[in-house]
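Look at one record.

>
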Amino acid sequence: MRIVFMGTPDFACPSLAALVRAGHQVVLAVTQPDRPRGRGRKLSPPPLKVLAEELGVPVCQPEKIQGQDFAGYLAGYEPDVIVVVAYGRILPASILHLPPRGCINVHASLLPAYRGAAPIHRAIMNGESRTGVTTMLMNEGMDTGDILLQEEEPIGDEDNVAALHDRLAHKGARLLVRTLDELMAGTLQGIPQDNSQATYAPPLRRDDELIDWQRPVRDIYNRVRGLDPWPGACTTWAGRVLKIWRVSLPGAPLAPDSRRVKPGTVLAELDSGLLVQGGDGALLISELQLQGGKRLKWSEFSRGRSIPAGTVLGLPE
């Protein structure tokens, strides 16, 4: 089959590599335009462009994909199927209906759960113990097309977004190759999603980053790892943003009166971290980053700097 591949970030790279490695004919890679990145705002290519060029796959970076002009351009490549993995834009009907075997998407969830833009982040933030990847025939809805194949992936208690992202990217790549093989063999049929079971994973908002210290400590723990390494959970301290990158649940019983302490109050500076009161117990912060500074372990952060017991994090300024 002739394949046009549409993708942009690191998550899409294992899928493109797997298709090429499996001998599929990828005739074009479509990805987002180069964007300014980093502190120097240097114009940088998306990860998929870099990989496609390494693999010798022609690259296209359209500013716009709406309208017949771009659909006509793609038609010139005569794709049998278009594969879409985290491309970053909604495909118009002119593209969805172009290839005779349809557009196939690799989605990082067990659809119909966690439809939308941030399924990995939201699954961890919600404390899920499992997720997975789905290959799906795309339609004009948001992740509502017929399911082709699915595979589960457990979410460990210590998983953050980076770890789960990488596992799902590689699992999705293997599932994509299997999907195309079975489609070519004529042994695979799509199954309609049960819309009554659908849940959603909307894009992250700035409010999602703020730690609500009144929440149960397990919820705060899940939020911190569900936003690591991007965009990071945060609170405020002395009028500055304080990113919280790693926490643990000490588990030890607290003093009987500790539950009457205001949530967000620093209970103690320990060698292992900063002990802070949550809604129903305490968390130990072991990695953090002060606004304008570097991400540091507590042992480095606390050299010459103190957040003494009694300090309340997250106070409005």
